[in-house]
Design brief:
Length: about 400
């Protein structure tokens, strides 16, 4: 990777993360940089220009981090500046074993990450969070993640770790942020509002103080982070719910769920996602690859037009037919690159000829030069001569 590639990758990841978490882009850049051990983005930029390269593990970790749209926990630091991020509980990974299987466990931005050969589990910091379990490499033989007993044991370890994180975070909070008072009021840990009812900006869910405090100020319904929880649903305007008691019923089930946390995973149907990179060819992708190859075959502006306008149809078996305009593609010229690509993809490619799709008059002009600029000047001159324009 060149330094430009590295910086570009980081920027793309930061953009994705910023969008998922509704953060300003510069904050996401700093977060990505901090994941790589830099104090801020500028430092990472300087290092990349000086030849620094992330290791493949670092890169994979940063990618996994950016891919998750789990909201960032924004802890209010002691100086009261809510725009500063602190990484509660960020520690180096610890190694452990379940039976013969080695794993690593680490807390990052409040989330627990646990991984071993070919698998990864992520647990968000809200007590109601459901685990995200994935196969990261399909070719690992006898991947323990397919064994439900192993998953259960792993989740037990991850849940215990998550509890530590929760304790660490709430230790810094006002007591009213962890336990409602006799009137059922709680204090928001970040904006310090005091209220009986709480509203989620993300899904409009209305929750009692008890429901929201027991879920670490994450929405019990959608899991949105504390920065999305407000004492008034100002975004709803006149549609705001009037019956505030309704919230008690609405959040009853989520409260129940949090209370039975100890058994949370034993009855849960855990879905295991396979995130091994896999090429899934479909109509669009086959068409795209064939057209790219056809552009390689095009020798001049006329043929490039022919490639761009070729009618490429792909059937359900991904076999394709390519229809070229005889004015734009020379008769008898085989699109060799496209045929080679079809062979690589293991699909049939049939060629046909059509006529009359050229978008401009005198299509022959496009075949007499190699440059598009020269072609366009010739085209403009021809129109001028013809119409006197
Ligand atoms: Zn919500």
């Amino acid at each position: 990777m060149t330094d430009r590639d590295i910086l570009h990758t980081m920027k793309v990841l930061a953009k994705r993360y910023a969008r998922a978490n509704r953060l300003p882009h510069h904050q996401a850049l700093d977060l990505i940089a901090s994941k790589l051990g830099f104090s801020h983005w500028k430092a990472a930029q300087r290092a990349a220009k000086g030849g620094w390269q992330p290791s493949s593990e670092q890169l994979a970790e940063v990618k996994a981090f950016a891919r998750e749209a789990v909201p960032v926990f924004q802890e209010l630091p002691a100086d009261g500046d809510s725009t500063t991020f602190t990484f509660a509980g960020d520690q180096p990974p610890e190694e452990g074993k379940i039976g013969p299987h080695v794993f690593w466990i680490q807390v990052s931005l409040g989330d627990v990450h646990m991984s071993g050969e070919g698998w990864h589990i992520q647990l968000g910091e809200a007590p109601s969070a459901e685990p995200f379990v994935e196969v990261t490499e399909r070719r690992v033989k006898s991947n323990p993640i397919h064994d439900p007993e192993f998953v259960k044991d792993a989740l037990k370890i991850a849940r215990a770790k998550a509890k530590d994180v929760q304790a660490h975070i709430s230790a810094d909070w006002d007591r009213r942020s962890t336990m409602p008072d006799a009137e059922g009021r709680a204090r928001h840990p970040i904006n310090k509002d005091l209220s009986k009812q709480w509203f989620c900006l993300h899904c409009d869910e209305q929750s009692t103080s008890l429901a929201i405090t027991s879920n670490m100020w994450h929405c019990p319904s959608c899991g949105a982070s504390p920065i999305n929880i407000f004492s008034t649903p100002f975004w709803l305007g006149d549609d705001a719910p009037r019956d505030r008691n309704a919230a008690r019923d609405m959040t009853f089930t989520s409260r129940k769920k949090v209370e039975s946390e100890a058994d949370q995973d034993s009855n849960l149907e855990i879905e295991i996602l396979d995130t091994t990179p896999t090429l899934e060819l479909n109509e669009k992708k086959v068409e795209l690859l064939l057209r790219m190859a056809l552009l390689d075959d095009a020798a001049n502006p006329g043929e490039r037009l022919g490639a761009l306008l070729a009618d490429i149809g792909v059937d359900e078996d991904n076999d394709a037919d390519m229809c070229l305009d005889e004015d734009l593609w020379p008769e008898g010229k085989d699109p060799e690159q496209a045929l080679k690509v079809a062979e690589l993809l293991g699909i049939e490619l049939e060629l046909t000829i059509t006529t009359g799709t050229a978008p401009f008059h005198w299509p022959g002009l496009a075949h007499h030069t190699e440059s598009t600029v020269d072609y366009v000047s010739a085209l403009l001159a021809a129109y001028k001569e013809y119409s006197g324009q």
